[in-house]
Amino acid sequence: MSSKRGSPSSATKSSSKRARTYPVINDYNRDYQDSEADVTLISSDGLEFKVHSYILMANSIVFRDMLIIGDSSDRTINLTDEIMERSSTVSLFLQTCQGQTPKFSTEKEVYCLYKNLIAFSKKYDAPPIIQLISASMYRWFYEKDPSPYYMFRIGIMLDTPEIVAFAIRNGRNRAWSSTIATEELVKATNPVATLGHVVGDPFISLSSWSLERLKEVPEAYVFAMLRATRHGGTDPEKVADGFFQIMKEMGEYTV
């Protein structure tokens, strides 16, 4: 009786065909599939970005050193940080490397995307990207009119006192507000009854910030803000000027 089972070779071919997988292509990495590119970045969520080495080397000191020292026959770089090295951030980093100015739209987007882009750019020592983001902050402010509070926080992330001073200077008449229920509002306006922002107090006073957000501010910035507020009170211009002068005195800013 003849067997109906396929030959070993046909079974192997069938199994191989089923096991074959293809790289995931989506809106993040679709523009980075050039077959002539000589470097492949693999984001922490598994997407491949085929990039020309000269783009990475021109914008990042760390990538430049990795590519100079590394094995030229295997230029695959696996990115592993599950937060800052996901495909959305890698895509934004590469767009910026190619001169596409970051477009800030909403305050939420700034923190979902640009916070990670800044962290990524710092990790891979990419001064051109940091400079481009810094320049974009002013355009974002004039086009979208975000809260100076967000400018302040981004300025700290960028470690750029000029942006922080700009945020302070434009923080006039800005105070913490809330949409919470009336019975909770009384507590939120009492500095010793809440660990959140003190509703009704001016943004430029760090003593009105929530404990969670205040922990994000480096000590040097805290000192400069407290001393500048003591000097300028509630006058944003005086506080901004004082803050910037103190940062220079501490060596936190050099021309």
Description:
It comes from Kwoniella europaea PYCC6329. Residues 37-95 form the BTB domain. InterPro entries: BTB/POZ_dom, SKP1/BTB/POZ_sf. This protein has 255 residues and is mainly alpha-helical. 52% of the residues lie in helices and 4% in strands. The protein is built from twelve helices and three strands, in the order H-E-E-H-H-E-H-H-H-H-H-H-H-H-H. The chain has helices at residues 8-19, 53-59, 61-69, 87-97, 107-123, 127-144, 148-158, 161-169, 182-188, 211-214, 219-232, 236-249; strands at 39-42, 48-51, 76-78. It has a three-stranded mixed beta sheet with strand order 2-1-3. A hairpin with a 5-residue loop joins strand 1 and strand 2. Helix 4 (87-97) crosses helix 5 (107-123) and helix 8 (161-169) runs antiparallel to helix 12 (236-249).
